[in-house]
Amino acid sequence: MEVILNDKSYTVKENTSLADFIESLGLKPEGIAIAINYEVVPKEQWSKTILADKMELMLIYAVSGG
Asked: Can you identify the CATH homologous superfamily of domain 2-61?
């Protein structure tokens, strides 16, 4: 199945969790947020959130500064 992250298509297996997908990309959960349909998914829900075909995700990086 296919998911879209920041306008880029990725092929994932069925029943892949959001946590597994992020890990497969080599990303660390610190300093990032993921939104599905413009709603941020709390990190404690990543392992329980199962991706669906054609789901659109948005990766948001935290930036420090002032």
From this structure: Beta-grasp domain (3.10.20.30)
